[in-house]
Design the sequence.
C-alpha cells in the first residue's frame, strides 16, 4: 500500500508538470498569432482593383518588441509582427498577474496561469469578437468600440466577476491523487460570466439586426456543439449496444436536450473506452432489455473538463 | 496537448478507482484490470456483450441456429480464456510485496496487457469468435456483416469529426457555411480505423491533416488558416499512425 502511495505521489508530481506543460502548449494557438482572432477579415480586392499593399509599418516598433520580450520572454513566442498582437500578448501578462490575485491563493507557475487566463477567459471573448466581424459586418465606428473588449477589458472583469465554487484543473487532479487538497478558483465559471457580460455589452454597440445575426450565429454554434457531443455519445453506445437507426435517432434527440451535453469532453471517452459519461436515466427507456443489461454494467464516469478545466464534479465513479 | 490532458485524466480515473479499491481489498486484479468491478460483474458484462454481438449479426446477415450455436460457443471460449489468464495472473501476483515500489511496477507490467485487452474488447480479429465467424459465415453473410461494421465505423468517425470541429470553434470563429463545408471535406477523407491502438479520439485531426491546403484556402481566410495550420502542425506526429 505504501508503495502504491509512493507511486501516486510521484505521479502527482508528474501530473503537475504535465498539466502545466499542457496549459502552456494550449496557449500557443493564440500566442502564435493572436491577431488571427482579433483582426477584421482581410478583404479580397475587387476585380480590376490592385491588391492592397501591406502597410509598410507592420514590423513592431523596436521599443514594443523590447517591452514584450521583457515582460513575456519566458512565456510567449512573439506574434507575427502585428501591432495588435503585441498589445494582446502584453495585456495577457497583465491578466496573469491579476488572475493570481483573483484566484485566491492559487499559486500556479507563471506560464500555467497565463495559459489558463488567456485561453479560458480571453479566447472566448476574442473568438466572439472575430465572429461578430464575420457575421455582422460592423462599420468603422462600431469596430472602434468593439476593440475595447480586449485582454485589458477581460483582465478588469476577471477581477470584478464573482465565480461560483473554487476549483480548477490543477486542483482537480491534485484532489484525485492526494485527496483533501484545498479547492481552487473556478476559472471556467468566471469565463462563462465574462462571456455573457461581453455579449450584453456588445448588444449596446451593434444594431438590432446585427445583434440578431450575432446571437443566431452563437446559437447555431451552441446547437452544433450539442449535436456533435450527442452524436459522439450515441456512437459510443452503438459500439456496445448495436443500436437500430430509430434508436440512434431517438437517443440523439434526447441527448441534445440534456442539460450537461455541452460540457462533455467526449474525446476522453474515446480514449478510455471502458467508460461512458453519467447519462440521464431516461436514456434506458429507448433501449431494449438486453441492451439495458449491457448498459447497466458499463462504468459511468463524469469527466466534464472543457479542455482546460475540471470543475467540481470532476471525476466521479457512479458504479 | 489534448493527448497529454486525456492521458492525465485517464491516469487520474485509474488512480481514483485504485485508491478506493486498494484501500479496501488490495486486490490488484480487481482494481487494475476490472476497474473496481467484481469478477462476477465483469463476466456478466462480457457475456452480455457477446449476446448483443450475436443479435447484431443476426440482424445484419441472418444466422442459422447452427451458426448461432457455434458463435455462442466461441464467445464463451474467449471469455473463459480471458478469465483463465486472470486466474494465472492472480497466482503470479499473489505473493508480491505490495510495499515495494519496484514490485508494484513489476506487477503493473504483468497486469497492463490484460487491462488493455479488456478495454479493447475480447471479440476482436484475433479472438476465437472472429476465427469461428470467418469459417462459419458464407460469403454473402460475411459481406453483409462487413458492410454493417464499416457503416458503424463511418458513423463513429463522423461523430468525431463533428466533435473536432466543435473544439476548433473554441479557437477559430466560423460562420455556418464554413462549418458545414469543412465537415463535408473532413468526412470525405479516408483514414485507417485505429480503434485498437486507442487513437480513435484523433480521427478528426487525422482527417484535417489529409485535407489539401488548397481546399482549406478556398474555405477560410488568412487569419483562420493561421490557427488551423498551427493545429495541423501540432498533431502531425500523431496522425502519421492513421496512414
Sequence:
Amino acid at each position: 500500500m505504501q508503495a502504491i502511495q509512493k507511486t501516486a505521489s510521484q505521479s502527482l508530481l508528474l501530473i503537475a508538470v504535465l498539466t502545466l506543460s499542457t496549459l502552456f502548449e494550449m496557449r500557443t494557438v493564440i500566442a502564435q498569432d493572436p491577431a488571427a482572432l482579433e483582426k477584421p477579415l482581410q478583404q479580397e480586392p475587387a476585380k480590376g482593383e490592385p491588391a492592397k499593399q501591406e502597410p509598410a509599418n507592420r514590423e513592431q516598433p523596436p521599443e514594443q518588441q523590447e517591452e514584450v520580450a521583457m515582460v513575456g520572454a519566458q512565456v510567449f513566442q512573439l506574434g507575427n509582427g502585428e501591432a495588435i498582437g503585441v498589445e494582446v500578448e502584453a495585456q495577457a501578462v497583465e491578466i496573469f498577474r491579476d488572475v493570481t490575485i483573483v484566484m485566491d491563493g492559487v499559486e500556479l507557475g507563471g506560464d500555467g496561469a497565463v495559459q489558463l487566463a488567456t485561453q479560458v477567459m480571453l479566447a472566448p471573448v476574442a473568438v466572439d469578437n472575430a465572429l461578430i466581424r464575420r457575421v455582422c459586418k460592423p462599420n468603422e465606428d462600431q469596430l472602434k468600440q468593439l476593440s475595447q473588449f480586449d485582454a485589458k477589458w477581460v483582465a478588469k472583469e476577471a477581477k470584478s466577476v464573482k465565480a461560483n465554487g473554487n476549483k480548477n484543473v490543477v486542483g482537480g487532479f491534485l484532489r484525485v491523487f492526494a485527496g483533501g487538497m484545498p479547492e481552487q478558483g473556478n476559472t471556467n465559471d468566471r469565463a462563462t460570466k465574462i462571456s455573457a457580460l461581453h455579449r450584453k455589452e456588445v448588444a449596446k454597440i451593434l444594431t438590432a439586426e446585427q445583434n440578431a445575426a450575432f446571437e443566431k450565429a452563437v446559437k447555431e454554434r451552441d446547437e452544433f456543439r450539442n449535436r456533435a457531443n450527442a452524436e459522439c455519445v450515441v456512437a459510443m453506445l452503438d459500439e456496445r449496444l448495436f443500436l437500430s437507426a430509430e434508436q440512434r435517432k431517438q437517443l440523439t434527440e434526447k441527448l441534445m436536450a440534456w442539460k450537461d451535453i455541452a460540457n462533455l469532453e467526449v474525446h476522453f471517452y474515446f480514449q478510455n473506452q471502458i467508460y461512458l459519461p453519467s447519462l440521464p436515466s431516461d436514456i434506458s427507456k429507448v433501449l431494449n432489455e438486453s441492451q439495458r443489461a449491457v448498459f447497466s454494467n458499463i462504468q459511468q464516469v463524469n469527466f466534464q473538463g472543457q479542455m482546460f478545466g475540471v470543475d467540481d464534479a470532476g471525476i466521479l465513479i457512479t458504479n | 496537448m489534448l493527448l497529454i490532458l486525456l492521458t492525465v485524466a485517464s491516469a487520474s480515473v485509474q488512480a481514483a478507482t485504485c485508491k478506493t479499491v486498494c484501500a479496501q481489498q488490495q486486490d490488484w486484479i480487481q482494481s487494475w484490470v476490472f476497474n473496481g468491478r467484481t469478477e462476477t460483474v465483469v463476466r456478466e458484462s462480457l457475456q452480455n456483450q457477446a449476446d448483443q454481438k450475436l443479435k447484431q449479426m443476426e440482424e445484419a446477415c441472418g444466422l442459422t441456429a447452427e451458426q448461432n450455436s457455434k458463435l455462442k460457443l466461441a464467445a464463451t471460449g474467449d471469455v473463459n480464456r480471458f478469465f483463465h489468464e486472470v486466474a494465472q495472473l492472480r497466482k503470479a501476483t499473489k505473493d508480491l510485496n505490495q510495499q515495494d515500489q519496484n514490485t508494484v511496477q513489476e506487477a503493473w507490467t504483468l497486469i497492463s496487457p490484460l487491462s488493455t485487452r479488456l478495454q479493447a474488447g475480447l471479440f476482436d480479429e484475433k479472438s476465437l469468435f472472429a476465427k469461428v465467424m470467418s469459417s462459419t459465415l458464407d460469403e454473402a453473410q460475411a459481406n453483409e456483416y462487413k458492410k454493417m461494421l464499416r457503416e458503424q465505423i463511418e458513423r463513429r468517425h463522423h461523430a468525431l469529426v463533428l466533435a473536432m470541429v466543435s473544439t476548433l470553434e473554441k479557437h477559430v470563429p466560423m460562420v455556418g457555411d464554413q462549418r458545414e463545408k469543412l465537415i463535408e471535406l473532413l468526412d470525405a477523407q479516408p483514414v485507417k480505423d485505429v480503434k485498437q491502438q486507442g487513437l480513435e479520439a484523433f480521427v478528426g485531426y487525422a482527417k484535417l491533416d489529409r485535407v489539401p491546403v488548397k481546399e482549406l484556402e478556398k474555405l477560410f481566410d488568412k487569419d483562420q488558416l493561421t490557427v488551423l495550420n498551427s493545429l495541423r502542425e501540432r498533431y502531425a506526429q500523431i496522425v502519421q499512425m492513421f496512414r
In short: Confidence is low (pLDDT under 50) at residues 1-8, 15-25 of chain B. The radius of gyration of chain B is 22 Å. Residues 86 and 142 of chain B are 32 Å apart (CA to CA). Chain B touches chain A through 80 residues (CB under 8 Å).
